[in-house]
């Protein structure tokens, strides 16, 4: 079985890198093994639920489809986790960068400045903590920062580490160069916020029409028509309408939340 997991892991050469970025302390083989096992359990559970409702043999055909869909859904958990880390880091990166500039301009050594960032920022601080841990183990500061550049999931944080690394290699002043990078990140985040504001107007219009106007007026018209053509509208139909309306509203909420830029105002 271990050979099978290894062969499957070889089909995804970037998996090891994604696991490191997602901060999942597992080997690709173990991650594949766990994903296959959980997918099998999920497919069996869903298939049994379908069988309990249908009492027919077609559910056997649904099992491989459910299994494959479950596997790829769970397999891409790393991408979802990386995206979440990127959003959390992007909320702190500007404040952490400015904090680092103030520390360095105040004469604080870089190692101590990294320690202060690690203590004051929950998400960004983890990457500075890893740099310090490598330095404590004997890795040169430049090499430790270079490793952090490779594993940082956020482009903004990667640019900050790159600027620090370039300044260390060239011997130039870090504060001024880092300030230019922070200003550029702020301008890009400002553009993202403006674009998000422009997207909200049409989304709000669609939300008003599809999630509020159409269900309310549609239900009223259905009740009126039901009285004229003698159609009984029972609790089941009303429950179905309410359920669909809830699903539509949840869809809009998730869409709006996913479109929100990862900026802490």
How would you summarize the topology of this molecule?
Elements lengths: L1 H9 L4 H7 L6 H27 L4 H17 L1 H29 L4 H11 L3 H13 L4 H11 L3 H16 L3 H55 L6 H25 L6
**Shape, per Cα inertia axes:** flat
Rg from Cα: 26 Å
What percent strand?
under 5%
What fold name goes in the CATH topology slot of the largest domain? Receptor-associated Protein
**N/C terminus separation:** 50 Å
The counted number of beta strands is: 0
Strand-and-helix sequence, N→C? HHHHHHHHHHH
Which segments are poorly predicted (pLDDT under 50) over 5 or more consecutive residues?
A: none
* Class from secondary-structure proportions: mainly alpha
CATH class categorisation of the largest domain: Mainly Alpha
Largest sheet: none
Question: Helix coverage percent of residues?
Answer: over 70%
Explain the overall architecture.
- The protein is about 85% helix and about 0% strand.
- The chain is mostly helical.
Summarize the structure.
The chain is mainly α and 265 residues long. It is 83% helix and 0% strand.
List keywords for this structure.
single chain; Receptor-associated Protein; 3 domains; 11 helices; 265 residues; 83% helix; mainly alpha
